[in-house]
Automatic annotation (TrEMBL):
The chain crosses the membrane at residues 12-35. CDD domains: Fut1_Fut2_like. This is L-Fucosyltransferase. The lineage of its organism: Eukaryota, Metazoa, Ecdysozoa, Nematoda, Chromadorea. InterPro entries: Alpha-1-2_FucT (IPR052501). Keywords: Membrane, Transmembrane, Transmembrane helix.
Amino acid sequence: MFIAPLQFHFGTTFAITFYRICGCLLVICMAYSFFNPVSQVVTTKFDKSYLNFAFRKKHITSVMSAKSRLGNHIFELAATLGISKSIGRAPVFYIQNLYYMKMLKETNETIPGLIDQFKIRYEEFPRNNRITTFNTRCCIYQDPDILKNIDDDLIILNGHYYQSPKYFPEMRKILRSYLKTPENEYRNLPKSTESNFINCVHVRRGDFARYDFHVSEPAFIKKALTYIEKQVAIQGKHVNTVLFGDDLQFMRQLIGNATELLTKAVCAFLL
Ligand SMILES: *[C@@H]1O[C@H](CO)[C@@H](O)[C@H](O)[C@H]1NC(C)=O
Ligand SMILES: *[C@@H]1O[C@H](CO)[C@@H](O)[C@H](O)[C@H]1NC(C)=O
């Protein structure tokens, strides 16, 4: 097994070609409307997104933790979207200050299709709007059904982080399709082939380790890696594992001496 610890942020490494496909569709639509006089008449100056916002009367948003990092942003947006779907409301993202602007920019660069699901408002939450207590503790799931009884036009949840995938059930495929191809090709990372299975493992420690909170033990991670390796071997493939994380020392301990040289080379390049 070859393991290369990398110390940069998790979400930035994902890839899709979704935007290219949309680009092609857009060109086809533009060409169609140019050559078709009827569609030119239909193309008026309505701002459709505004209409959606105005006529779909019930909305939902959440405070979120705009100061935090990309992984949190993706979870918060995916969860707010999942909750909005499950209770039949339209999701709104309020750019309340520069942190929210930064959050929008980062998620728009990494997973543009996700932020596109939200109506964007460049203002603070409406004054006098009630704030609803929801998901105030880390790493628990609270059933959004309790929000169905609320009649407010806009529900503002005071929750943040939303560290449970249960908030966006059965959305794996669609969320992945929102990811954008990164410009950096990460040439020094192994690539999947017919015979090579690339196993990417995100080891999140940081403040979790400092506060003795929800971190995986080395023994657990090693057993999980061995399990995956065995499953992949059954398919006749070889496993290359890439560790991502914020604790290089911990990841080094995890992999022992065998790959130390490679570790240094890869990290020196990427850091
Ligand atoms: C997201 O990025 C695209 C491409 O840079 C840009 O055209 C679009 O306006 C951005 N969306 C928002 C909501 O800022
Ligand atoms: C790593 O190398 C050091 C020094 O050569 C050795 O003492 C240690 O046992 C090795 N650790 C592993 C996990 O192989």
